[in-house]
Amino acid sequence: MKTKTNICLLNDSFPPVIDGVANAVLNYARILSGREDTDVSVGTPYYPDTNYSSYPFPVYAYPSLDTSLLTGGYRAGYPLPVKEIALMAKNKPDIIHTHCPINSLFVARSLRDLSSAPIVLTYHTKYDIDIRRLIAVPILQEESIRALVHNISSCDEIWAVSHGAGENLQSLGYEGTFKVMPNGVDFPKGRVSPQAVEEAASGYDLPDGVPVFLFVGRMVNYKGLPLLVDALHQLGTEQDYRMVMIGQGDDLSALQEKISSLQIPYDVKTESGEIISRPGITKGKFIFTGAVTDRDVLKAWNGRADLFVFPSTFDTNGLVVREAAAGGLASLLIRNSCAAEGIEDGQNGYLCDENADSIAAFLKWACGHLNELHIAGEHAMQEIYLSWQDAVNLAVNGYYDLLERKQSGKLKAKKQLGDDPLYTMAADAAILYERYNAMSPPDYEGMLDNFISQREERRKKLLEDLQNKKTELQDFLLQRLNRNE
Question: Which structural domain, as residue segments, surrounds residue 446?
Fold first, then answer.
């Protein structure tokens, strides 16, 4: 008799890739595998030379393409991993939880057809911003967003990591409801030791009593970094401070060039570990550490700073804000941003407007009120910190609620979307593979004939639809031409 609820987690990234969503999936899997009432498995694109057997839960790594040059290190998983979908189905999942609305969701929908398990999607990111950044043609942007929402609408339940994330999804055309299911933080609550802080900051010019501001994240302009540079430029040379920038990103060089053009000195840590001042000045007000992958070192930097500065309106949850709060560090955030949800201005953090003048005005005040910053940081640690253990406990309650609605008949079955040929192909191929494994060759041959016949009918219907649309377009163009004549 089955005693555990079986959760299948899916995502387009997983270690060895390190990003916010991969970290979320890893923490979900780690905690679910340790509970007495849940089993868990993970489906994700395969990365060469990765030992997936080292995890305490099954990882179904399916075939992938190397797209690292286009995507900054990521591989693209096949949307039709027939063998792996069938293997995941044999594991009899009760819940399919995907954390990506693209390839992983195609896999999830095929798996639902085989297992009848409902699909939960967690919406982590404002995908429309990335789509508009990567695709230059407006009509292609809108079609890509429409296809994204189309795919998302096939899910049985949508979870958003914040109210702002869910509202962003609805603004793109999604007409359903969503639940807020926040992510957690893998930093333990509490301050780090002075020794750990000293080791992390060793070699950097950080005089006692000089305010230290901190940013952690990708060095990309849409996180508000040009505004931050302009704001600190307004502090001028009279106010001393250090702005520590941790991370890498596509706009790092342009950001440093902007700082140089404003004649603000900055320090850079090289790959060899040497700290170099630019442009040849002994002290830099900006300090670029590069990426910090050691979580203990990152937590120690939070312990060294006086204020975390996060001027992003792109991020949907702002995990770095909660990580800072874990160590008693308050944040300056943009008013009404997703990262600012739960922040009471002046109590457990600070809010400003999305412009350089507002950021600068607060930072000038902060330089003379370090004690107040530290008190707000203590409140942040007690009031906005959420551990991954607590976050996953909330998610498990959400799983049980969804299963209860399914068993009671209150969960409406999602229909297959007829104008989605890619998903249809994936689902049919997975079902064919599963049936083939369970049947003798003679039965399989008959089923294959039937499958080919059904596929041919569907293909004809799709071609008819395309021809009708082509005819409609031609008629429309002819009308426009006649009107112009």
Answer: 439-484
